[in-house]
Design brief:
By secondary structure, the chain is α/β, with parallel strands linked by helices. The chain has 22 helices and twelve strands.
Length: 475
C-alpha cells in the first residue's frame, strides 16, 4: 500500500492563479486540463475550501443521468430555495438558475470531467456559449471546466472551431511535477534517492503517493510496481485503455520508442511494418498531445518543425521505466519473481537508465537557474545538441545566439575530474566549427551525482564553470 491522506504538495503557483481570478469579482470561465492522475481534482478541492462551491464530478453516463445527479448537487447546495427533490430537465435551465444565483454572490461552480458531459450531450458547449453571451458574463459566476482528455480539451474547447472559443477568460494546463517538486514528497530521502524515485515514477502525484517514504528503493519498486495486483503494475495499459480508442496501436508505438527506435521510419517499421510511416505519424501526434511522447531536435535548429534530425522519446519517466523494466519480464512477475527481476534485470542497469533522467533534470535546472542569478545570461532555449559524431547533454542559448552554456552530466559512482571539463571544451569547439559560432561566447557547466574532485573545483572557480550536484537541484 502507498501512503494515504498525503498532504497537498506544492501547487502554490496554480492555486495563486485561481485565487487571483477568483478575487477579480468578474464573471470567469476557466478551463483547467491535464492528463489523468496529475492532481486536477485535488487542486480544485483545495481551491474550493471555504468558498461553498457547486462541485460536480461527471462520470460515463447519459444526459438524463448527468442532469439528475447535478440536480441533487444543486438541491443540497441551495436547499433553502430548491429543496431536495428538485429536478432540472435541461442544461439551459441549470445554467439560468446558476446565473440568477450569481447575480448577488460570488458563486464557484466546478464541472470536473467535463468531456463526459459533452460526450453525453454534444450540444452542451453551444448551450453554454449562448447563455454566457446572453447573461452569465454579466454575473459573478466563477465557472471552471475541468477535463483529463487533453486532446478533447485542446481540440474541442480551446480550438477556434469550438463554440466556447473567445468566451474563456483563462486556461491552465496542469503538468506533472518536475524533479524538484516531486522531491517534496520525500523530504527525508537524500537528493540522490529523490532523483532515483523521480527517474522511476516521474512527476505524477498519484504515482508518487504510492511509494512509502520509510522504505528503501528496492522495497518500493518490488512492492508497488513489480508485484502483481499493485496499483502501478499494469497502470500503463489501464491508462492507454482509458484514454485511447486503439490502445494496442499506441502500445506498439510506445514499445518501439522504449526499445531505442527513435526516428519515424524506425518506429513505424517496428510497430506496424514497412511503409507505415504515415500511420505511425498519426499515433505519434496523439501521444505528443498527451505529453507521453516528445519530438526533439538539436537545440541549434532554427526551424525545429521542419528539421530532419528530429527524434522521438518517451516523455514520461514511469512509462520509460515500465517499458524498460516491467513489460519485458511480465512472465517472471506473474510467477511472483519480483526479487529476481529487481536483482538481475533492474538494479545492475539502473545507473545507466538514470543517466538519461539526470540529463533531463539538468536541462530543467538550467531553465530555472537564471531566476537565482546562477547563470551569466537568461536562456532563450534549453535543450541538447548532437550530430553523427558528437553529443552535448545540455545546451542553453541566450542573447540571440551570442552566448551559449554547454553542460555535461555524469550519473557515476565517482567524483568527476578535470578530463570531463576538458572534453566538454573540446566538444564546444567542435560545435563552434560545425554550426558556425565564431563570435559566440561559451560558458560551461558540469553535473555530477557524486560531486567533483578538489582540482576540478579549483579550476571551476578560476574559470567560472558552474558545478551542480543533486543537492543543488533540490535547493
Amino acid at each position: 500500500m502507498g501512503r494515504e491522506n498525503v498532504s497537498f504538495v506544492d501547487r502554490e503557483k496554480e492555486l495563486g492563479f485561481l485565487e487571483e481570478r477568483y478575487r477579480s469579482g468578474r464573471a470567469e470561465l476557466l478551463i483547467l486540463y491535464g492528463r489523468r492522475r496529475v492532481g486536477k481534482t485535488e487542486l480544485l478541492r483545495h481551491f474550493a475550501v471555504g468558498k461553498r462551491p457547486v462541485f460536480f464530478v461527471a462520470t460515463l453516463g447519459s444526459r438524463a443521468a448527468h442532469l439528475a445527479s447535478f440536480s441533487e448537487v444543486l438541491g443540497q447546495r441551495f436547499a433553502d430555495v430548491l429543496g431536495a427533490e428538485v429536478r432540472f430537465d435541461s442544461w439551459e435551465a441549470v445554467f439560468r438558475f446558476l446565473g440568477r444565483r450569481a447575480r448577488d454572490e460570488r458563486l464557484l461552480v466546478i464541472l470536473d470531467e467535463f468531456p463526459y458531459l459533452v460526450q453525453a450531450d454534444p450540444a452542451l458547449p453551444s448551450v453554454l456559449q449562448k447563455l454566457w453571451d446572453e447573461e452569465l458574463r454579466h454575473t459573478r459566476l466563477f465557472l471552471v471546466l475541468c477535463g483529463s482528455s487533453v486532446s478533447f480539451m485542446e481540440g474541442e474547447l480551446l480550438a477556434q472551431k469550438s463554440p466556447l472559443y473567445g468566451r474563456r477568460t483563462g486556461q491552465y494546463l496542469l503538468l506533472p511535477f518536475d524533479a524538484r517538486e516531486a522531491g517534496m514528497f520525500f523530504p527525508n530521502k537524500s537528493p540522490k534517492e529523490r532523483l532515483e524515485i523521480y527517474g522511476i515514477l516521474g512527476g505524477v502525484p498519484a504515482y508518487l503517493e504510492q511509494f512509502s517514504p520509510d522504505e528503501a528503493l528496492f522495497e518500493n519498486v518490488q512492492r508497488r510496481i513489480l508485484q502483481k495486483g499493485s496499483y502501478l503494475y499494469d497502470e500503463v495499459r489501464f491508462l492507454l485503455m482509458e484514454e485511447l480508442r486503439e490502445p494496442k496501436n499506441y502500445f506498439a508505438i510506445l514499445r518501439a520508442i522504449a526499445t531505442s527506435k527513435t526516428r519515424l521510419n524506425e518506429i513505424a517499421q517496428s510497430a506496424f511494418g514497412e511503409g507505415e510511416a504515415r500511420k505511425a505519424a498519426f499515433y505519434l501526434d496523439t501521444l505528443q498531445e498527451l505529453r507521453l511522447v516528445e519530438r526533439r531536435v538539436p537545440v541549434t535548429e532554427t526551424k525545429p518543425h521542419k528539421s530532419r534530425r528530429g527524434i522521438y522519446r518517451l516523455q514520461d519517466n514511469f512509462f520509460r521505466f515500465w517499458f524498460r523494466f516491467v513489460y519485458p519480464y511480465m512472465s517472471a512477475l506473474e510467477a511472483g519473481q519480483t526479487e529476481l527481476v529487481w536483482k538481475e534485470k533492474i538494479a545492475p542497469f539502473l545507473p545507466e537508465y538514470m543517466g538519461q533522467v539526470f540529463e533531463e533534470v539538468a536541462r530543467g535546472y538550467i531553465a530555472r537557474a537564471a531566476a537565482s542569478e546562477r547563470l551569466p545570461f537568461i536562456p532563450e532555449r534549453v535543450g541538447a545538441w548532437w550530430d553523427g559524431h558528437e553529443e552535448i547533454d545540455v545546451v542553453a542559448i541566450g542573447e540571440g545566439g551570442r552566448k551559449l552554456l554547454l553542460g555535461e552530466c555524469k550519473w557515476s559512482t565517482r567524483p568527476v575530474d578535470l578530463p570531463l571539463l576538458e572534453d566538454l571544451r573540446r566538444k564546444g569547439e567542435y560545435l563552434r566549427r560545425s554550426v558556425g559560432l565564431r563570435e559566440t561566447e561559451f560558458h560551461y557547466a558540469l553535473f555530477s551525482r557524486e560531486g567533483f574532485t578538489k582540482r576540478l573545483e579549483r579550476r571551476a572557480c578560476e574559470d567560472g564553470v558552474l558545478l551542480v550536484t543533486p543537492a543543488d537541484i533540490f535547493e
